[in-house]
Fold this sequence. Notes:
Elements: H1 2-19, H2 21-64, H3 71-77, E1 79-82, H4 96-99, E2 102-105, H5 117-120, H6 132-148, H7 153-158, H8 160-166, H9 171-202, H10 208-235, H11 239-268, H12 274-287, H13 300-309, H14 322-358, H15 364-376, H16 380-408, H17 426-429, H18 441-477
Antiparallel strand pairs: 1-2
Helix pairs in contact: 1-9, 2-6, 2-9, 3-16, 6-9, 6-10, 6-11, 9-10, 9-18, 10-11, 10-15, 10-18, 11-14, 12-14, 14-16, 15-18
Amino acid sequence: MAVSITARIAREEWRALVRDRAAVVxxxxxxxxxxxxxxxxxxxxxxxxxxxxxYQAQANHEFQAQPDRHPHRMVHYGHFLFRPVNPLAAFDxxxxxxxxxxxxxxxxxxxxxxxxxVRQTSLLLRFGQLTPAFVLQVLAPLLxxxxxxxxxxxxxxxxxxxxxxxxxxASRQLVLGKLLALCGFxxxxxxxxxxxxxxxxxxxxxxxxxxxxxxxxxxGWLLLWSVGVVLVSTLFARGRDAFLVLLAVWAVTVIxxxxxxxxxxxxxxxxxxxxxxxxxxxxxxxxxxxSHNPQDPQYAAFRDSLLRQYHVTRVEDLPVNxxxxxxxxxxxxxxxxxxxxxxxxxxxxxxxxRLFDHAGWLSPAxxxxxxxxxxxxxxxxxxRSFLEQGEAxxxxxxxxxxxxHAEEVHYADDGKPGKENRIASTHWKGFPPFHYxxxxxxxxLARAAPAGAALIVWILVLTGxxxxxxxxxxxxxx
Length: 478
């Protein structure tokens, strides 16, 4: 009997929403926005991936097509690496527009990624892109506020609440029926996004597990707002008051906090500017010595150890080219230096990110954004993985060329006027191309777990508060 009463209340509330032309129009507009956002983001993602793949193939061809050269010239010629776009970036681009996608790798230098979308396009990109994630994070809760704020308060304002209670309808049945109707409204809003995610997984564009996690996260997000809207509507006697409170909550949690918390994290944990970091790196790099000069005092101990290792007294008697070996040692030392600075900078950025994560317990919007970016592969950890893989490829490439310098070029002729010291281009034609490997799913799940836990706790707390307040609604009405 209780179930039938709750279902009848939900059905009547749903009919009221359907008869409301504004609600129907709002739902249609949101659906259209979702479809436009999904199609636009998918086309941009596909175009970006095709463009980067084309540029990567061109860079690979140009590197391998270099003529016979001295191997150290190839070290300075360098190579371009392009980060492929995660398929789920079409749903939530995260920080991809700010981080850069192109990495130039060369000897004696560790460059940062360049050509972020924000720097290449309109400043409007800084204020948010029209993506499915943006529509569900920002616009969908606002629609729930507009059309659900008076769900319970309307019964109190019109005087029907007392009549329903007098007829034997339990207050919790009433509130639960209103909540079920609003959840049905929420489900309709989710259909386009869920259909798009399912299409991506079914078509093999994205793995099923991240897709299911995204669907669960955004379903939980809108469930949280449905519960919150009914809670506030139960708390206030007038729909107008409930609407103002919900609008203020939406503005603070969805608009203000996601922009204020990163600024707070930046103030709490300072990052050196790019130029300050370059100056410090260059100062320490110069202190390592000149790896182009085999007589540099900084490499005297290394040179002496080689002479002892090969049981000779002159560098000319070494079976390998001393210049190539010193280039290898210099690259090893400089890479350790570059990696130390890069890791320190990334660690500070991730410390800022952890502050953002902790704030997710204060605002479910922050928890959702962290979860969404992590699962979509568009967070800071994914970008760091690209940089580290690119640096590992750079080091292996340079050291392979330095090995050719040490083994294929004679020391006595190296740099002597009239001697070109070139080696055959076939040596670098077989160099393996760069392949970016996405982080394993286990790592993604581990990083997404805290944000998911925060979102679940928020849902449970609001649900408990709504259940408790619904039980007191009969006393309040009297």
